[in-house]
Design a protein that fits this description.
The protein is of the alpha+beta class. It has 15 helices and 22 strands. A hairpin with a 2-residue loop joins strand 4 and strand 5.
């Protein structure tokens, strides 16, 4: 199977950034204008018809912390005091601000009981007072999609504590924001925007709800076809994005059932495909694979989505889209055998082709953590990457997306009664170094061992007058949190131990040099195991390695 290369930015980076930036500026000016605000203000809803169910698990402890005046979201904390106002002070990070204005705290606060519901109503009304008019950040499509979804799921319960006038205000605000989500925007956010608008339409009573629901469903079907491939792989190639969209569609499907409607075929297809993707990416520790900047999510969070999967007992396939998976009793491997996502999806993409995550005894041992090739479990040549990230003004407009990552990836899968193995190759080094990176991963099902071989093979383009100079390369294994490593005196083997386990695993290799080097993970200290070597520019190189349980 061959992975499809990512497309280049049409017209060059500056031309593309100019077109996108100009379009975005015009769209924001129109969305902030009086005529548009008038167009999305009616018809007024007649209250709430149903209460959609958000299948994401809520944590009442987070809600109780908010009651004490402490908001904890996205790894950051904001202390506002009891019944304090989080809206009139700086947020500790942009991710925190997105979660705050996306009302991500609302499910947790509602789970904290009547006192939490009362505080939630106060915060919603206070947000309305300060941000009820258009604001470039609070009304940005990604933030507003989350706020509309959360408000649609919990506004019916809030209205039980609100006055008639407050209920009418909340319903009108929900309808107005949901209609704004139907404004044409980025294909990257389209599926979640339209799904949130549809959930809001299902929740609202009367003509306003019916009209909003119909328009949202009409737009949602093509957006889902663009975002989710027939194999179930999301265009972002991120497992956590598949999971979040699955949650949104599960909520919509259940809301339509409450209204006595069947979900469109495109929604049902997407639910089935995304559920299969979440099954594929759920690893032995119950969390998700984290390729291309994905988040692991907790086992309970992942299990909440899988609980709605009627096909959850089916065997997990060995491949999905551009990914391959090898499973044994004690070892599990997921390999990225596709090119990075392109276009708007490249904003979070990682340049780590043939990188993999590996678990032993249900715990992570290796995995990638950053965005560059030096951060992944793959091979780097000459201390340089082959795919750069946009910088400067184009990056401010388009995001720090990958550019020039249009290489092909090939993979073949093999099986025998006692073994599974993959032969994969990527052409990312061809343009700069005239090299083909070939990787074989062999999983012995009987012994529970992994044997790897990485080759750098010259292509015809590698020949030239300077073919005799030496080029360094490095094979990297970023160690997961809680993994400790000890290099042997002969530097031919490394003992790896996980916290709380008496045994260990030994990685043997034939590299020229082995070292443990610092490798920060999300601002925290980390370590990576690095196998280094040198190759002549006109010849290839090979590194063989084997991971097996430590004897005794």
């Amino acid at each position: 199977m061959a992975g499809r290369p990512s497309p280049r930015l049409p017209g060059g980076e500056f031309a593309r950034a100019f077109a996108v930036g100009a379009g975005r500026m015009l769209a924001e000016e129109w969305r902030a204008s009086g005529p548009w605000r008038w167009m999305i203000s009616g018809p007024r809803p007649e209250g709430f018809a149903i209460q959609p169910r958000d299948f994401r698990p809520a944590d009442p402890e987070i809600g109780r912390a908010i009651l004490t005046g402490v908001f904890v979201m996205e790894g950051a904390t904001l202390a506002v005091g009891v019944r304090g106002d989080p809206w009139d002070r700086p947020c500790p990070s942009q991710a925190f601000a997105r979660a705050l204005h996306g009302f991500e705290w609302l499910p947790h606060l509602m789970a904290a009981g009547p006192e939490g519901a009362a505080e939630a109503l106060r915060l919603v009304l206070e947000w309305r007072r300060l941000f009820g008019r258009w604001n470039s950040f609070a009304w940005s499509p990604e933030v507003m999609a989350r706020r509309v979804h959360n408000l649609a799921c919990f506004a019916p319960r809030l209205s039980a504590r609100a006055s008639e006038a407050e209920t009418a205000q909340i319903a009108a605000d929900l309808a107005r924001q949901a209609r704004d989500l139907l404004f044409p925007g980025s294909v990257k956010t389209a599926a979640r925007r339209y799904a949130a608008a549809a959930v809001a339409g299902a929740a609202l009573r009367g003509k306003a709800g019916r009209r909003l629901l119909g328009k949202a469903l009409d737009r949602l079907s093509p957006a889902l076809d663009a975002a989710v491939s027939p194999e179930g792989e999301h265009a972002s190639r991120r497992a956590d994005v598949s999971l979040e969209l699955l949650f949104d569609l599960q909520t919509l499907d259940e809301a339509l059932i409450q209204r006595g409607q069947a979900a469109p075929d495109a929604v049902q297809r997407a639910i089935d495909r995304l559920a299969g993707a979440v099954r594929f990416f759920t690893l032995a520790d119950g969390t998700l694979a984290t390729f291309h900047g994905g988040r692991r999510r907790t086992p309970a969070y992942v299990a909440a989505a899988r609980a709605q999967d009627e096909a959850g007992d089916r065997p997990t396939p060995g491949e999905l889209g551009g990914y391959q998976r090898l499973d044994a009793r004690r070892v599990q491997i997921v390999l990225d055998a596709g090119p990075p996502p392109g276009g708007p999806w490249a904003a979070d993409a990682c340049a780590q082709p043939l990188g993999f995550e590996l678990l032993v005894n249900g715990r992570r041992l290796f995995g990638g953590f950053g965005r560059d090739i030096a951060d992944g479990a793959t091979v780097e040549v000459d201390q340089a990457g082959f795919a750069r990230r946009l910088a400067g003004w184009p990056a401010r407009v388009l995001g720090e997306r990958l550019a020039d990552a249009d290489f092909a990836v090939d993979v073949e899968r093999h099986g025998a009664p006692d073994a599974l193995w993959l032969d994969a190759a990527h052409h990312g080094w061809a343009r700069r170094h005239g090299l083909l990176h070939q990787r074989r991963l062999y999983l012995d099902l009987r012994l529970g061992e992994v044997r790897g071989e990485d080759r750098l093979t010259p292509t015809a383009r590698a020949q030239g007058p300077d073919g005799r100079h030496f080029v360094p390369y490095a094979l990297r294994f970023p160690l997961a949190e809680g993994v400790h490593a000890l290099v042997s005196q002969d530097r031919r083997s490394v003992l790896l131990r996980l916290d709380g386990e008496s045994g260990g695993w030994v990685l043997r290799n034939d590299a020229l040099d082995v070292a443990l080097e610092p490798h920060p993970r999300s601002g925290r200290p980390g370590v990576q195991l690095v196998l280094r070597g040198q190759r002549r520019a006109d010849s290839g190189a090979r590194v063989r390695w084997k991971l097996a349980p430590a004897a005794g």
